[in-house]
């Protein structure tokens, strides 16, 4: 069995994951080809070999096309002069912004001088760029491509039902007319002086803490970009699954409905390229099984557009909670896991723990940009799992029982949810008759041994019980891999399990069935039928 192990002992971020996956897949050529199928503003992906505290790996950056400037550093519009790069925020009090590595990130390294020189060059370049307010491209007739003034794609070769749009640029002190331009994306933050399809009328609630006012992409826009691209269906589903986790976390943290979560344009571009690249590479590698180490995050605070955030940052900790990521903090005083990193590991890891017995074929190291006092790397290990016991997974599992005859139904429902959210593997109630002929419920919690104390405390605090029983149990679990089945209703996520004798079964993921049923307004039974049909074809 082809197994991929994520070693997140020193954290994970989007660009570290791309670097590591590129090394195990030799997939640079494939990745570049697939990324060309994304219809997003022009950008370059720089892939270079780089060391971090003496460990060599691959460092990946998303740059503004034709420049050395990371897209998330193109922040003329962010007056607070704050910007973050993958895995880290850089606070600048000087004239320009850039996401380039600081020389101090390579403490004691010979590269520091070179980096300082490179920084000066970048600063010059970026200053020049600042003076140039207009890209000029959009003023050319028949221009098709990314208009930097407008921050969106335009196709002036298409007559869009005579929809001449006039946009007022809030950031640039000019107004100009795009006659007959068809707007490929409708993520404007402009005033439309034209009759406009109200469904495109985005009225974004802008977080003033960002101190900038420009183009946003909502979670819905990003899903559309992914769906409208020509990357494989498998990669699309994986990318959307990762974005969904980030969007749910951001929605929780900022107290907004998921569809109102928005990403400012440069941040969205960086996230899209990071997340879609990981999806493309994972779909290319196609491991049968993915396991992660317990994920290590740092502690302390970091600065980002929201100001000073405590580590794990809110969006990352929301993903830890929502996705039941097994993580711990280690003695490194900064952020080691970004929200994107948490979304990646939680999308792919079927379980967290030690590496299984396997013959290693490839090791990939993705390098991050922080100086953390030790290598800032993500390691992924690809290998063939030793087949002997591969159908059966066992672990240190307990069952906790309690008979409850005097808690209310409402309380019991609440407790079930709380136990599940606190690490229980499963929680159930069974109706029983207990002493004194009392109808009651037997609470049964299945959990890892290390979660016992925490879960018992919840049972004592939230129910009327005064005693619980627990005992270790043996468990057999079939090995499973995630897969995507193509159906007439679109791709449906599924898990494929195999028995010791080599029989395999594929079961649809309920969330995937439910989402399609909801989106298409059809019954979940008909989605399941389409899944079964897709499996047979
Ligand atoms: O931009 C937003 S909304 C943002 C929110 C949060 C929260 O925790 S809320 C954190 N961050 C920081 O941005 C960088 C980049 O993260 P990516 O996952 O996009 O690579 C990172 O330091 C986050 O902690 C941004
Ligand atoms: Ni924000």
From TrEMBL:
<dbReference type="GO" id="GO:0016829">
    <property type="term" value="F:lyase activity"/>
</dbReference>
<feature type="region of interest" description="Disordered">
    <location>
        <begin position="94"/>
        <end position="126"/>
    </location>
</feature>
<dbReference type="GO" id="GO:0016151">
    <property type="term" value="F:nickel cation binding"/>
</dbReference>
<dbReference type="Pfam" id="PF01969">
    <property type="entry name" value="Ni_insertion"/>
</dbReference>
<comment type="function">
    <text>Involved in the biosynthesis of a nickel-pincer cofactor ((SCS)Ni(II) pincer complex). Binds Ni(2+), and functions in nickel delivery to pyridinium-3,5-bisthiocarboxylic acid mononucleotide (P2TMN), to form the mature cofactor. Is thus probably required for the activation of nickel-pincer cofactor-dependent enzymes.</text>
</comment>
<dbReference type="GO" id="GO:0051604">
    <property type="term" value="P:protein maturation"/>
</dbReference>
<feature type="compositionally biased region" description="Basic and acidic residues">
    <location>
        <begin position="94"/>
        <end position="121"/>
    </location>
</feature>
<keyword id="KW-0533">Nickel</keyword>
<keyword id="KW-0456">Lyase</keyword>
<feature type="region of interest" description="Disordered">
    <location>
        <begin position="184"/>
        <end position="203"/>
    </location>
</feature>
<dbReference type="InterPro" id="IPR002822">
    <property type="entry name" value="Ni_insertion"/>
</dbReference>
<comment type="similarity">
    <text>Belongs to the LarC family.</text>
</comment>
<protein>
    <recommendedName>
        <fullName>Pyridinium-3,5-bisthiocarboxylic acid mononucleotide nickel insertion protein</fullName>
        <ecNumber>4.99.1.12</ecNumber>
    </recommendedName>
</protein>
């Amino acid at each position: 069995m082809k197994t991929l192990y994520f070693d997140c002992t020193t954290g994970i971020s989007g660009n570290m994951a791309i670097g590591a996956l590129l090394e195990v897949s030799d997939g640079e050529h494939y990745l570049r080809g697939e990324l060309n199928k994304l219809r997003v503003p022009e950008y370059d992906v720089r892939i270079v070999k780089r060391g971090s505290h003496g460990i060599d790996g691959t460092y990946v950056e998303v740059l503004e096309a034709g420049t050395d400037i990371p897209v998330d550093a193109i922040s003329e519009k962010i007056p607070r002069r704050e910007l973050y790069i993958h895995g880290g925020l850089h606070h600048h009090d000087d004239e320009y912004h850039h996401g380039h590595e600081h020389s101090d990130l390579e403490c004691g390294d010979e590269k520091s001088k070179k980096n300082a020189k490179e920084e000066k060059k970048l600063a010059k370049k970026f200053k020049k760029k600042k003076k140039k307010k207009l890209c000029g491209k959009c003023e050319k007739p028949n221009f098709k491509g990314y208009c930097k003034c407008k921050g969106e794609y335009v196709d002036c070769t298409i007559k869009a039902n005579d929809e001449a749009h006039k946009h007022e640029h809030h950031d640039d002190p000019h107004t100009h007319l795009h006659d007959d331009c068809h707007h490929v994306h409708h993520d404007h933050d402009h005033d439309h002086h034209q009759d406009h399809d109200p469904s495109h009328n985005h009225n974004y609630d802008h977080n003033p803490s960002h101190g900038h006012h420009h183009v946003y992409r909502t979670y819905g826009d990003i899903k559309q970009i992914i769906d409208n691209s020509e990357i494989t269906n498998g990669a699309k589903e994986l990318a959307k699954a990762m974005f969904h986790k980030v969007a749910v976390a951001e929605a929780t943290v900022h107290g907004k409905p998921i569809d109102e979560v928005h990403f400012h344009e440069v941040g969205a571009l960086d996230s899209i390229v990071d997340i879609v690249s990981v999806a493309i590479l994972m779909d290319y590698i196609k491991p049968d099984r993915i396991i992660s180490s317990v994920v290590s995050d740092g502690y302390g605070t970091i600065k980002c557009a929201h100001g000073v955030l405590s580590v794990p940052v809110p969006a990352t900790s929301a993903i830890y909670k929502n996705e039941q990521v097994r993580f711990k903090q280690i003695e490194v005083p900064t952020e080691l896991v970004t929200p994107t990193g948490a979304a990646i590991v939680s999308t792919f890891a079927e379980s967290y723990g030690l590496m299984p017995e396997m013959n290693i074929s490839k090791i990939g190291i993705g390098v991050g940009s922080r100086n953390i006092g030790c290598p800032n790397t993500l390691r992924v290990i690809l290998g063939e799992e030793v087949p002997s016991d591969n159908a059966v997974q066992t672990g240190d599992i307990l069952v906790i029982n309690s008979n409850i005859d005097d808690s209310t139904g409402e309380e019991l429902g609440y407790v079930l949810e709380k136990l599940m959210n606190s690490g229980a593997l499963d929680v159930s109630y069974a109706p029983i008759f207990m002493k004194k002929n009392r109808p009651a419920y037997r609470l049964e919690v299945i959990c890892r041994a290390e979660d016992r104390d925490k879960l018992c405390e919840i049972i004592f605090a939230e129910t009327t019980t005064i005693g619980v029983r627990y005992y270790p149990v043996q468990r057999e679990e079939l090995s499973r891999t995630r897969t995507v089945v193509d159906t007439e209703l679109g791709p449906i996520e599924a898990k494929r399990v195999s028995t010791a004798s080599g029989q395999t079964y594929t079961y649809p993921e309920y969330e995937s069935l439910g989402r399609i049923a909801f989106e298409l307004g059809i019954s979940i039974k008909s989605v399941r039928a389409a899944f079964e049909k897709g499996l047979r074809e």
